[in-house]
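Hi support team,

I submitted a single chain yesterday and got back a structure, but I'm not sure I'm reading the token output correctly. Could someone confirm the output below corresponds to the sequence I sent? I've pasted both exactly as they appear in my results page.

Thanks,
R.
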Amino acid sequence: MIRLAIRMLTGDRAKFIGILVGISFASLLITQQSAIFVGLMTRTYSFVTDTPVADLWVMDPEVEHHADAKPMLPTQLHRVRGVEGVDWAVPMFKTFARLRLPNGALRNCILIGIDDVTLIGGPPGMVEGTIGDLWKTDAVIVDAAEVDRKLSIFDRDPRTRKPVGPTRPTRIGDVLELNDHRAEVVGTFSASPSFFWEPTIYTTYSRAMRFRPTERRQMHFVLVKARPGENLDALAERIRERTGMSAHTRAGFQWLTARYILEKTGIAINFGIAVLLGFIVGAAIAGQTFHSFTLENMRYFGTLKAMGAGDGTLLRMIVAQALCAGFLGFGLGLGAAAVFGEVVKRSDLAFVMDWRLVAVTAAAVLMISVGAAAVSLRRVIRLEPGIVFKV
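Hi R., thanks for writing in. Yes, this is the structure output for that exact sequence:
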């Protein structure tokens, strides 16, 4: 009987295609929008992800996300190092700075200063040069993704100040100005795409403080490595008690940043509306089309009932039809979303699709399929076998 139900479904090609279109659209939109949302969220804390060497991040208690760095007194570094269970702790300087290119163009950038001796907390992967080149005089390392974009060098018309002529990317050996201080490019690094759009520049901790105006509080983060076998949550609690500062694990700091973006922006609402609309439209199309299909085949269901088929058999046939259409529509929509992800993966669009999104989409499609079947169940249950004999 299940085979017969599937043949009935595929026999009416117009209705069958209509059901597939509705479910495929829902599957595509739910997966696509969810993947873009997750991609954006992972970008909000990409800086933390790209610094995996630290087990804990220590910061001012008022810090709400990693770009909201608030300076601490340098003495906090020694207090953190004195906490039991800390293997090592190094300072990190992170702030916004004004950058001037060789042609005079001004840019805002994110300036990061890492420990002078160990260079712990440096860029995740070098493209040109080495991390040790930061020990050179006035050395900085710039983001390779921005050297031919926001850090590209071009000539200006002396009268209009508009760009003229060809542009070229920033190269090793170029001399920049950071807050009116000389900075020489000694390398480029590759980082994960970020939610924040300013180019990132790495240098040593002491040089970063020289690039920025002098303040009494200059240290923004302390990167902590726990001793082997140490419980990170317990160590974070000890650091909070001893220093009065906030301490987070890497995952905790990532969630702190993502939660701030979720609470302070409308990203979650916007993407939630898009996903909900995809679900509603898909359910409406699939439900209406499947209901119309059932009504057109009511005589056949009546014939089966007159031949002795029980309500349970007919219900299983309808559920099988709905699940078959749902499975095919889910596969088509998921495949289209995967193709979309491959097309845009080299662009600036955020797109991250993992098994959890696939599971969420599968659950949504299952709800649509069951809902579409439920629309027709009542009519089939109340169906009188004598309908087959009516003219």
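A quick pointer for reading it: Residues 100 and 177 are 5 Å apart (CA to CA). Let us know if anything else looks off.

Best,
Support desk
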